Amino acid sequence: MSNELDFAQFSFGTQVRKSPYSDAALRWGAKGFSVYNHMYIPRDFGDPSQNFWNLVNEAILCDVAVERQVEIKGPDASKFTQFLSCRDLSKMQVGQCKYVLITDQDGGIINDPILLKLAEDHFWLSIADSDVLLWAKGIAVNSGMDVEISEPDVSPLQLQGPKSCDVLCAAFGDAPTELKYYRFMEYDWNGVPLIISRTGWSSELGYEIFLRDGSHGDRLWEHLMAVGTRLGLKPGHTSSIRRIEAGMLSHHADMTLANNPFEMGMGRLVDLDMDAEFVSKAALKKIKAVGVSQKFVGLEIEGAPFEGSNDFFWPVLSDGKQAGKVTSAIYSPRLEKNIALALVGIDYAGLGTALTLKKFSETRGCKVVEIPFFDPKKSLASAS
Prior knowledge:
single chain, Elongation Factor Tu (Ef-tu), domain 3, alpha+beta, 31% strand, 6-stranded antiparallel beta barrel
């Protein structure tokens, strides 16, 4: 284990939790952390462009224990999980994952988790950065449903990249490598319980390994690096470059509670015709009927490559008037372009629309383009 003093340079005190992998990540070269779901997440292993190339050409191992699980169990678990989400879950099978939205009574997006169905009466919401546990507990109190809501001792790692399948096979044998996209299996690793899913926040071929006993975090990390290093595995962090290329939304950056699924281009995740009730059904019906005033779009931006990502929501202008804002921006070394995700007024959202980005005292031309910027059919992640 790393000495506590090694981590002290990053510490915000005991109110922010370390993950079961924090010490291992530090040993393997983590140089910076940020806070996500009240936990530390490694954000810096050196050059972010090199981390990107490691991801798209080989494989990286990422500590994503911050993706906490909200566990829903009990006789009414299926009904309650549906009540939280606007996506139809009626045909979901045990062993299947789904990308879902958790929406509130006004249609606002609380979270966009991956849902795992462990049994007919047992679900996990693998959440982005917001307090879904408290929301679910609050809904459960007056729901009249027989459910138990908790945060279990579960901490995922992400193994992502074209060589991730080879690393997974070396670590755990053939069975997990046969998983189809958005499927998972339970796995006993020498007495340590895991769930392995073919999912991940990269749009590359990849897997998530959910450790169900945090006391083995250091051992699991070292095992994966021991078998994977010779196969090209590198320690890393979730890549902003790759996720923006893929048009993947980051909660609090690209969307907040003030945004609804239709303006974010996620109407496919809303089923207003299903018989089941859900929290946001009436609100989303109204929003769909009225229409939206803004739209989530991609931008290509002129000029020299951006250094790093944006720390501010840069204004987007049309004829000197604000037309919207950039939510996430980056330079893609693969596309050799500055690319961005943005929310703009509906009148400015047409493909090819010419706009102006105001980056502090600098202005740059930009135009609206389709997202994703790369591999729009997710052929890399979903290939069999």
